[in-house]
Amino acid sequence: MNRRRSLLISLVAAVMAGLLVYGVYVMQVKQIELQQTVRVVVAKDFIRAGVLIREEMVDFKLVQKGSYTGNMLTKLEEVVGQESLIPLGREEPVLRWKVNQYHLLPSERQATFQIPKEYLLSVSNGIRAGDRVRIYLSSADGSSRRLFEEQEITVASVKSSANVEVDNPKNSNLLSKVEGDKEKMYASRLEANGAIDQINLNLTEQEWLQIDQLCSAKKAKLVIAFSSTSILAGN
User: Fold this and answer.
1) pLDDT band at residue 223, thresholds of 50, 70 and 90?
2) What average pLDDT does the structure give for the chain?
3) Which of 28, 31, 200, 216 is the most buried (most CB within 10 A)?
């Protein structure tokens, strides 16, 4: 009886020792895997361009160290609250240059104003969101002139009659701007997914009131011209 009990105890001890060794092995393998991978932030589902990213829209995913690049973001706070510059695919690692914080929003002293169509005489076809423009007043009484001569105005958005942001889908101006590729920024203006129907500008209250006062009487209209500083200055 004692011999059988001793054998049972020895068998149980051997099994427990084996399980302990296996557990240590599994932990070591997992530790090695963690050392060979990096946890990066990814989109849970498809995210359209121009979307404010919320915490529930992103998650973490392990990628092999060999596939990891310095542009991949590893902290939620680096992504949440940012705006997507281009579409993000499902479970696609979020790269630093694909998001930006409110890059087209007005400054503290500004607001975004949609310019009424009846105020417009012409808008340059090459204008895209994020560009700088010059505004001219065209008047029949001979008082035509440039408005706000000391500065250029930032374009918040330009949209087609289908309410879609006007851009080149195959060669996005915003993406080229973020990458600092001036040649692509120039090339992206040669084709677009529609004609400009609406234009939104970031203006101070005084600037908007001046435009409204000059144009509301229907005796003058605006000419909005593209400025080359949008490309040359890399703004």
Assistant:
1) very high
2) 84
3) 200
The model carries a pTM of 0.57
Over the Cα atoms of the chain, what is R_g? 29
C-alpha 46 chain-centroid distance: 14
Strands 132-139 and 220-226: antiparallel
DSSP 69-94: -TTB---GGGTTT-EESS-B-TTPBP
Using DSSP's 3-state secondary structure scheme, residue 58 falls into strand
Per-residue pLDDT tens for 143-181? Answer: 899 999 878 898 999 999 988 888 887 777 777 776 667
Q: For the CA atoms of 125, 86, 97, 88, what is the dihedral angle to 10 degrees?
A: -170
Extract the tokens encoding 90.
């499902």
What is the rounded distance in angstroms from the CA atom of residue 188 to the CA atom of residue 157? 16
Cβ atoms of 81 and 168 within 8 Å: the answer is no
Whether residue 104 contacts residue 156, with contact meaning beta carbons closer than 8 Å, is answered with: yes
C-alpha span between 83 and 210 (Å, rounded): 31
Helix (H, G, I), strand (E, B) or coil at 96: helix
Cα 228 from Cα 129, distance rounded (Å)? 14
- Count the helices and strands in the chain (H runs, E runs): 5, 11
